[in-house]
Specification:
alpha/beta, Rossmann fold, 14 strands, about 400 residues, 6-stranded parallel beta sheet, 8-stranded mixed beta sheet
Length: about 400
């Protein structure tokens, strides 16, 4: 007896491919590659590699990446980030018309109408379509074009665009929803009426690598003492400028730990003693850094999951998180794996305590490890995605 053909499921995501490290993009790729045993996954994405400009860097067309069919469509307009930020600040502070919001959405990018046209033309043959991230044009246009069997993975955090009326349309169209955390689901339900549509906290699986060689990592980078680590795009919009200011206060009060940054540098860094940027590093080097750090700092007030924090927990490293993010605070409270801070003084106090108290660090690290093992196993996550896909398809 021959096995029935695997149904084809479309994934829609603004960027996709090797070296793309954004949270939503990493999630989409991880789920796509792992669902290949159940579905034939076709990713509808753009030719952009960089989310600042959305410049077309990959050729349009089709390729296969790790068993996943990837279809790329060109972005019609590059983004002028300074002009977009000026326009955003103006619109955030007042009432807006629908036309103004749609013009803002196009200016935000990536504006890829040919992606939406292709999705509309092929939607009828797809078992379901899974959209990642509520914010961008491919999701807005794609949901309008192919709502019938859609799942939205909104990766929502509390930010000004969430109040735009055009996103009422985005959250009205999906047949099912996959959230990353209970805090994210609560935020969405407080803003939008999801009715009785299927929804679940699907989360994301976290792979625990073999124990990295911490001594070798320290030797490679000349790190002999305690250090806090930030892993991700080094950007003021990610809370990094505030984090560096808090760290400067810590050093000014006699703190002895370094602050090590890994990731693409997208802002200037002041000359603060102990502040070091290692630039973009390999996945293996990132895991070694996470395992070796005294604590991993998560400074963004806007988070829907925080892969870096969960990876740190999985490796037994304590977290230090911005309390302004409901998701980060929830992780710390549910796991008992990290401390959180509301201002610079609390940052200084928490980091100093983590550096000085080895027993506390060990207890937090073990609690974080158990939290990830219990709630972020891939087999559990994938079963939730399969259930939501079948609910939308039905």
């Amino acid at each position: 007896m021959t096995r029935p053909a695997r149904p084809e499921v479309g994934f829609v995501i603004q960027r996709y491919g090797p070296g793309i490290t954004g949270g939503s993009e990493s999630l989409a790729r991880a789920v796509a590659e792992r669902l290949g045993a159940d579905y034939r996954i076709t990713v509808f994405t753009t030719c952009a590699r960089d989310y600042v400009t959305w410049r077309n860097e990959w050729p349009a067309g089709e390729e296969e990446i790790a068993g996943v069919r990837v279809r790329r469509f060109p972005v019609d307009e590059e983004r002028d980030l300074e002009a977009f930020n000026r326009r955003s600040e103006e619109l955030y502070g007042r009432a807006r018309t629908r036309d103004e919001e749609l013009a803002w959405l196009r200016q935000q990018g990536p504006y890829a109408p040919r992606l939406v046209e292709a999705l509309k033309a092929e939607a009828a043959r797809l078992h379901a379509v899974v959209f990642f991230t509520y914010l961008y044009y491919p999701t807005y246009g794609g949901l309008a074009a192919a709502p019938a069997h859609s799942v939205l993975v909104p990766t929502t955090h509390d930010e000004p665009p969430l109040r735009f009326a055009i996103y009422d349309e985005v959250f009205a169209r999906p047949r099912a929803f996959a959230f990353l955390t209970p805090a994210e689901e609560a935020l969405v339900r407080s803003r939008f009426d999801l009715g009785g549509r299927p929804a679940a906290v699907a989360g994301m699986g976290v792979d625990v690598p073999p124990a990295p060689d911490q001594a070798a990592f320290r030797a490679r980078h000349g790190l002999s003492g305690p250090f806090a680590l930030y892993a991700g795009r080094i950007d003021a919009g990610k809370g990094c400028a505030e984090m560096v200011a808090h760290y400067a206060r810590y050093r000014g009060r006699g703190g002895r730990a370094d602050l090590v940054l890994i990731g693409t540098l997208a802002m200037g860094l002041p000359p603060v003693p102990g502040l070091r940027s290692l630039g973009y590093v390999s996945e293996e080097e990132k895991q070694a850094a996470l395992a070796t750090a005294t604590a991993v700092v998560c400074p963004s007030p806007y988070e829907s999951l925080s892969i870096a924090l969960l990876e740190a927990f999985a490796l037994g490293t304590a977290g230090l998180a911005n309390a302004a993010s409901a998701v980060l605070k929830e992780h710390c409270l549910r796991s008992n794996g990290g401390l959180f801070y509301a201002d610079g003084d609390e940052f200084v106090e928490a980091l100093d305590r983590l550096v000085r108290d080895e027993g506390l660090r060990r207890a937090l690290g073990e609690s974080g490890r158990r939290y990830v093992e219990a709630g972020f196993r891939w087999e559990t996550v994938l079963e939730r995605y399969r259930s939501l896909i079948e609910a939308a398809a039905g």
